[in-house]
Amino acid sequence: MKSTKEKQSDQDNWLDQKTKIFQVITRLCFLDDVFSRVILSHCTMEQRIEIVRAIIDPVFRKMGLRVIRTIVYAETQKDMKELFSHSAEMDIFAVDIEGNFYNIELQISGSLSFARVENYSSTLNKYSLKPGEDYENSKDTWTIFITNQQYWKETGEPIFDDGPVCRIEYAQVYGNTPKKVMSQSHSHICLVNALYNGDDVLGDLMRDLNSTDPSKIKIPALRKVETWLKETKEGENIMTSVFNELLQEEVKKELEKKVEKVREETRAEMEKEMEDTRAQAQAEIQKEKEESKKQTIRSYFIEGGRDNAFIAKVMHTSIEYVQNIRNEMANTLLQV
Fold first, then answer.
1. The Cα angle at residue 222 between residues 221 and 223, in degrees rounded to 5
2. Least CB-packed of 20, 29, 149, 243 within 10 Å?
3. Nearest to 229 by CA among 240, 216, 217, 244
């Protein structure tokens, strides 16, 4: 049974952990991957659709495009599994009333690779057609990356050199002249600068997504769910549970790293032992071969042989080697 002091220590540790979790929660915003996942997974479908629409509309307005049709479906962590190729888990997946597909990715940590952007776009594009469906039935797919990264991983070139939205479309090249074929292409990519703070609807959106204070968020559904998660007992329990799971996952990963390190060290030791044993065996074999060769040469001389050159040729060795053995035999006889 624990003493009063031990119980008090456990209580203090628990309170300290709760305080740390609370401090972390208050600093979270929608652009934090884990928090956005919790927000969207605890939304109603109507709230999720409202948030998705509130994200897409300002982006389209900034690109001078018409506002999208009604979003009819939205989900988080959409797992698009591929049997024979790389799968993709999409942060936010949505479909509008016309059947067009949208993928919104939040790329805040880590460098941004165009290869990843392109892979998500191609996966979404392929997913838009059902098995056996005619290619002419293809709908538009929009892959939208909201990122604070300012340079491409592959080239180091700036992403947002023409404004807060970078739009990428497929093009054909005639000679040395690229010709955009936006009217024919159903696959669209755009990247949005999460650091944008302009005085317009896109700036309002980025401030909402970066805000850690729910009271300052303008999107009603996002403000409501964030307030619930950050300022109610039920929301606090959910977030504490999420962070405890993440903590356990981190502990598990660290344990796996340590186990793998021990395995590597053990494997290295075993390989060294095997190499030493192999080298020792080879040395023994070589020693036996050497002794056998010497014995054959000795037998030749014992039987009366005298031609050093002949035995050297037969034994594939040098005349000096044969002469040395002959000298050793002579010295041994003198000692006797």
1. 90
2. 20
3. 240
Q: Which helix (H) or strand (E) holds 185?
A: none
**Residue 143: what pLDDT?**
94
pLDDT of residue 313: 84
319-335 vs 233-302: helix crossing angle, rounded to 10: 70
In DSSP terms, 112 is beta-bridged to 152
For residue 140, give the nearest of 177, 104, 187 by alpha carbon.
Answer: 187
Buried b (16+ CB within 10 A) or exposed e, 175-203: eeeeeeeeeebbbbbbbbbbebeeeeebe
Number of residues assigned to the chain: 336
**How far lies 317's CA from each of 42, 210, 226, 320, 334, in Å?**
85, 82, 88, 9, 26
Separation of alpha carbons 189 and 264, rounded Å: 43
**Cα–Cα distance for residue pair 295/302, rounded to 1 Å:** 10
Best CA proximity match to 143, nearest among 109, 93, 70, 181: 93
28-61 confidence digits (pLDDT tens): 899 988 889 889 989 999 999 999 999 999 999 9
Cα dihedral 9, 10, 16, 20, rounded to 10, equals: 150
- Rounded to whole angstroms, the Cα distance separating 273 from 326 reads 40
